[in-house]
Design brief:
It is built from 13 helices and 15 strands. The chain is an alpha/beta fold and about 375 residues long. The strands form 4 sheets. It has a 7-stranded mixed β-sheet with strand order 1-11-10-7-6-2-3, sandwiched between helices. Strands 9-8-13 form a 3-stranded antiparallel β-sheet, with no helix packed on it. It binds pyridoxal-5'-phosphate. Pyridoxal-5'-phosphate (PLP) binds next to helix 3 and helix 4.
Length: about 375
């Protein structure tokens, strides 16, 4: 049996909708992008949504609309996809990191306070950088694998420190924290719609916010810096072509019509995995914090005991048709970050330990019971072999 890591959940509805757009002749800057934006804003419970061509573009425009500048610092997690931190570098700013907590794999109120205190007292010195004591200029919270941060506490700490907050909720569409949807924390949030996400537009992303000026800036910058009049040949600021096309928007709209069904299928698949896998010695299944109202599952990531050789484990899974991936390698230890900023092993002990233990296993809405049982059996055998 072959079980892929992910597979998009596409029905005839999405296919029909995309064909209709092709027939309509309006492939970009049309009605579907507006409809998609309204649907997303309503769903998250915010006033504005600005659709763009990727989650990275969404985060970049948020950071830029807040005026993050050359030489400033943005505090975020290192246990994330690289673009969370890269968007600060696009603006000449320096990404600095807080460690995560073991259970949610997110920055916690405690690890946030520790990082703020450390940077305020000692600054940051590496082989290629010497930052005197500082307070970060921006905090980007990440809801990793769809699991929310403890947002009430996080927002309180940031407010007390006068630290502006944004949310990388790219992996958390549908997640609810104490009755508030992910994406609605801080000044603005971002979602991503790559095919392994809860919903997909092929490539795509969206900025969500209650702040009209952030929305307006993002709208202008995604469209080559055109002003409100959208005069085609007038560019009032530096812009980009980050537009989401009509085909992608139509597909996203159909996916959003099925969002409850999609999330419910993902939830059932996650519960089934937790039941099957928690019986296996040496394997830890994802923990869900008490403050989570519901989880918009993005991926299913297990942790292996240190005694299990992860490379051998993953090779065995792959040799037996079970795709898997070592999500995530810490951002601060990516070759580019080591070279550019002199970051080193030992700076973020929990992030580094966790990232040596994690394995993402096949997870998608239409994962069948048979496929899940096969994955669980293969994992059992892989663990036994390593013992
Ligand atoms: C946490 C996080 N942030 C940002 C992104 C970037 O999204 P995209 O790949 O659409 O640019 C991703 C995508 O995987 C992500 O997981």
């Amino acid at each position: 049996m072959f079980v892929p890591l992910s597979r998009p959940d596409i029905t005839g509805q999405e296919i029909e909708a995309v064909i209709d757009i092709m027939k309509s002749g309006i492939l970009s800057i049309g009605p579907k992008v507006n409809e998609f934006e309204e649907t997303i804003a309503d769903y998250v419970g915010l006033k504005h949504a600005v659709a763009v061509n990727s989650g990275t573009s969404a985060l970049h425009l948020i950071v830029r609309s807040l005026g993050l500048e050359q030489g400033q610092t943005m505090l975020t997690s290192s246990f994330t996809f690289v673009s969370s931190a890269n968007v600060a570098i696009y603006e000449g700013a320096i990404p600095v990191f807080a460690d995560i907590e073991e259970s949610s794999l997110n920055i916690s109120p405690q690890t946030l306070e520790e990082a703020l205190e450390r940077y305020a007292k000692k600054g940051l010195e590496t082989d290629c950088m010497n930052l005197p004591p500082f307070q970060p200029d921006l905090f980007m919270g990440v809801d990793i694998f769809g699991h929310p941060m403890d947002w009430d506490e996080i927002e309180r700490i940031c407010e007390r420190n006068g630290l502006p907050v944004i949310e990388d909720s790219c992996e958390a569409l549908g997640t609810v924290y104490k009755d508030r949807k992910a994406g609605s924390f801080g000044l603005a949030g971002a979602f991503a719609f790559y095919p392994n996400k809860q919903i997909t537009t092929g490539e795509g992303g969206v900025i969500v916010t209650n702040d009209a000026s952030i929305a307006q800036m993002c709208r202008s910058m995604r469209n080559q810096g055109r002003g409100i009049s959208e005069n085609w040949l007038e560019h009032v600021r530096l812009g980009y072509n980050y537009r989401l096309d009509e085909l992608s928007s139509a597909m996203g709209l159909e996916q959003m019509r099925r969002i409850d069904e999609i999330l419910s299928k993902r939830d059932s698949a996650a519960k089934r995995y937790s039941e099957l896998l928690s019986r296996i010695d040496g394997v830890t299944v994802p923990a869900i914090a008490d403050y989570v109202t519901s989880l918009g599952w993005f991926v299913y990531v297990i942790r292996l005991e240190d005694s299990i050789d992860r490379d051998g484990f993953m090779d065995y899974l792959r040799d037996n048709g079970v795709q898997c991936r070592d999500y995530f390698r810490p951002v601060h230890l990516q070759p580019f970050y080591i070279k550019q900023y002199g970051y080193k092993e030992g700076m973020l002990p929990v992030t580094e330990r966790v990232s040596r233990q994690t394995v993402a296993i096949p997870f998608f809405s239409n994962l069948s019971q048979e496929e899940q049982e096969y994955v669980a059996e293969t994992i059992t055998r892989a663990v036994e072999r390593s013992g």
